[in-house]
Amino acid sequence: xxxxxxxxxxxxxxxxxxxxxxxxxxxxxxxxxxxxxxxxxxxxxxxxxxxxxxxxxxxxxxxxxxxxxxxxxxxxxxxxxxxxxxxxxxxxxxxxxxxxxxxxxxxxxxxxxxxxxxxxxxxxxxxxxxxxxxxxxxxxxxxxxxxxxxxxxxxxxxxxxxxxxxxxxxxxxxxxxxxxxxxxxxxxxxxxxxxxxxxxxxxxxxxxxxxxxxxxxxxxxxxxxxxxxxxxxxxxxxxxxxxxxxxxxxxxxxxxxxxxxxxxxxxxxxxxxxxxxxxxxxxxxxxxxxxxxxxxxxxxxxx
Length: 303
Ligand code: FES
What we know:
It is a single chain. The strands form three sheets. Strands 1-12-11-6-5-4 form a six-stranded antiparallel sheet, with no helix packed on it. Strands 7-8-9-10 form a four-stranded antiparallel sheet. It has a two-stranded antiparallel sheet with strand order 2-3. It folds into two domains: 2-177; 196-301, Rieske [2Fe-2S] iron-sulphur domain (Rieske Iron-sulfur Protein). The protein has helices at residues 2-19, 23-41, 43-50, 59-62, 64-81, 89-114, 119-147, 151-177, and strands at 196-197, 199-200, 204-205, 217-221, 224-231, 234-239, 253-255, 258-260, 267-269, 275-277, 286-292, 295-301. The chain contains eight helices and twelve strands. It is of the alpha+beta class. Helix 1 crosses helix 7. Strand 7 (253-255) and strand 8 (258-260) form a beta hairpin. The relative contact order is 0.11. Residues 242, 244-247, 261, 263-266, 279-280 line the site of FE2/S2 (inorganic) cluster. FE2/S2 (inorganic) cluster (FES) binds at residues 242, 244-247, 261, 263-266, 279-280.
């Protein structure tokens, strides 16, 4: 039992030691701000990199390619070194090359995810990226050594890179599981199956006449924040918590039949909550709306 406690304590100590490195900000900020500002100017590019088109962040999906390739390369190298199979050397080198090329592609998507992070997540993400650059350097040097016939050096370099890869993969996991990067901020909301009255915290049940055309209101249903508005005469309701990083959509702006998040500009359609522009990749919960005795009621509707 003590060993489990020690392992947990060591993991937390290491993570916090990385997250507390203030000097990282001085290196990270001059990179993060230009990347963020660039993506902010191009909705289509941002949506492509952040997985809006896929309904899922792209970076965690694509990293399986370099990790899998390099793991396979490690096993093939092991077979070679132990003298069991040397005929697979061309395959081994091809697998290492696939790992390197796909790692560079994954870095582009990861850079976009990282550009929205702050504080500890930003620092851990920067160390994660820095480690990945180092890993790519090891694998690039390994491929060069292999091409020049220095097989032993090549294997040593890729083995060192693989060791670092395990560390970097742990950091990537912590970014999602510990800091929630890429996790939908409505992930734990249960669907509101029954019709329920919409309430304004201070004024009780919301009356239909109190919802004006084009005005975004943050109201609640069973304690859950939702966005209520009237568009072209119809009452519309979707979740108020932006699925990207949790900002309140009612503080955003209405653009046609879409709401633009005030924080990073994701756009959600009022009629069904679908993401029309990233960085969000997960739709807002959508609600059907009815009026009963002058009061507004909602229930969950399929996207
Ligand atoms: S919080 Fe990032 S787009 Fe809404």
